[in-house]
Amino acid sequence: MKPIGTPSGRAWVDVAVPGPSVRLPGVSMAGFRHRAPGVVDIPMVAYPSVTLLVDLSDGEGAVYETQGRRERGSVVVGLLPGDLRATGRGAGQLLQIRLEPVAAAALFGASAELSGTVTALEDVWGRDAGRAEDRLRAAASWDERFAIAAGLLGRRLGTRPPVDPQVAHTWRRTVTSRGRVRVDGLADEVGWSRKRLWSRFRSQLGITPKRAARLVRFDHAAHLLAAGHTAAGAATESGYVDQSHLHREIMTFTGLTPSALAAAPWLAIDDVAWPSAARVRRSGAAVRGEGTR
């Protein structure tokens, strides 16, 4: 495990990542052991994935709150959760699983009902959620926990109809272009009308193609800010019209200012917890395009 501190220095977190043998398509995992001396209140930054947060702590666990909804313990965070905060006290352990929307659809079915929400894991998985928590809590190491989680997810993946190949292709192109791709061009690529692509994408992934592109582009800009880029530089690099445009998008997705986003602990640990994603962000220049319309 690698110990790291938040930018404020108020809390330390040990981060564990799975080895290369634990791999599932569209799934990434990280384990966290935190030992905050008091109450911790962390803004959680929107990310282009559906996120499972499995609370393995003793006691009451963390509380997640967004848009008037409040959940405690293990949760599923859908796409576009808005101004989401996590609060907790003292030491604890957490398994975080990020699911690309295509993988989330294969796991849960059409993810439209999860979009914009925080839902108790038990409400999504039923009694299997409690049994999974017990097994993960009893594991002797993070490596064992990752193997258990991969086995549980692997058995569930593929039990539901997959998303359309055209929808999966559109999502991949949106990610690889860092959100700077025209929806009309994507429709032409898959041989569908814009209306059909819009409808199928939204019904299967719970988000429109344009909103997906905005989320992916925001994520790229957020990590540039966390890496020390100026707001003006991040706006230019990510394809925003100007710094004010980026500011509005940050407020829309997180309710934070650009400076607060840049210092968010949620982003500070990303390059440690998700090294493969960090490599993708650092590789090459941003794809230049005309923006999403």
From TrEMBL:
It comes from the Bacteria. Keywords: DNA-binding, Transcription, Transcription regulation. GO terms for molecular function: DNA-binding transcription factor activity; sequence-specific DNA binding. InterPro entries: AraC_XylS_family_regulators (IPR050204), HTH_AraC (IPR018060). Residues 165-264 form the HTH araC/xylS-type domain. Pfam families: HTH_18. PANTHER family: BLL1074 PROTEIN, HTH-TYPE TRANSCRIPTIONAL ACTIVATOR RHAS-RELATED. This is Helix-turn-helix protein. It comes from Nonomuraea fuscirosea. The lineage of its organism: Bacteria, Bacillati, Actinomycetota, Actinomycetes, Streptosporangiales.
